[in-house]
What we know:
six-stranded mixed sheet; alpha+beta; 10 helices; 16 strands
Amino acid sequence: MISSMRLRNFRGFEDIELSDMCPITLISGKNNVGKSAILEAVFLFFDHQHQDSFIKIDMFRGNYMPNRGTNLWESLFYQMDMSRTMQIEMGLDGTLATLKCMRDSSFIPIYNAALPKEAMNDIITSAKLTYTLKFQYKKGNYAEEGHFIAGQAGILQDMTTNQENQTELMSYTQFINNRQMFDVVIIDYFGIIEMQQKKQDVIDIMQMIDKNIQDIVTISTNGQASLYIKTNEHLLPLNLMGDGTSKLLCLVVSIITHPNSIFLVDEIEGGFHYSIYQKLWETIATIARKYACQIIATTHSYECIIGAINGIESADRKHEFCYFRLDRKGTQNRAYRYSGELLHIAIADNMEVR
């Protein structure tokens, strides 16, 4: 579990720290203060071993242009200044882990016979004309070092470790927002759940939000599989059930198939009517505890914050919940922490906590 994090020269943050994070952590603040960036930093930290990690982060914001070259990572640096080292620190179960990224203009990749010759030549030319992104990761006695090289044919990643090139297994981390919340992978996850005979667990959880849900089935038409929701009156494709139902099902299915993982939910209130925020949070807190998952979410909504307080308390997890309000004054960023109990008092006193 993430117990703390510190970002230096990442997105809009020159330096910000979140301490004493909890199994359920909610983040709020004004527009453009960096809520989504916090989630992106967590995702990059745990996904950095994959060559498409930067493309994924681009897609989280609706950018579907994989051949953006060095622009893929320049935007992740504070003020797009590649002369300064980006650093993401995480406290993980009592151990400090650090990911550093920096510009490296001197690195030229070694020819990789596994790639087509034209693609490899493009990568080498790109590295000579622009630069590569060097990264270093360290946790305890384990260390990694490598490079990302962007070319028109895609991104090449090389990496070495100090453990005979055996890579450390990183926690599964999934980012969910209104753009990235449901795809064919979730259908595969649901298939795993059916084979494990856990489908009723999913239905029971979904019924906590919508009692009309009777069943969830996979139907294939024209060779393409889709999930359908059976209610008291209809059998409807999931995409016709609304963003809220899709988002919750995506989260539930992913948690059940990936216990002991980290889930990042951006603007968690999206797609839900304010009247069910409390039940939504009770549902999420309940399933996250059952499968030992950490939830880090953002919100714009005051009602969602109140729903979180009451729903998490109903799930008997009020001591496992904290809230951060992000604030920016000039170029200085700060995260103000509230425990669940302190947040409850602040809300009762009509204090502005967003």
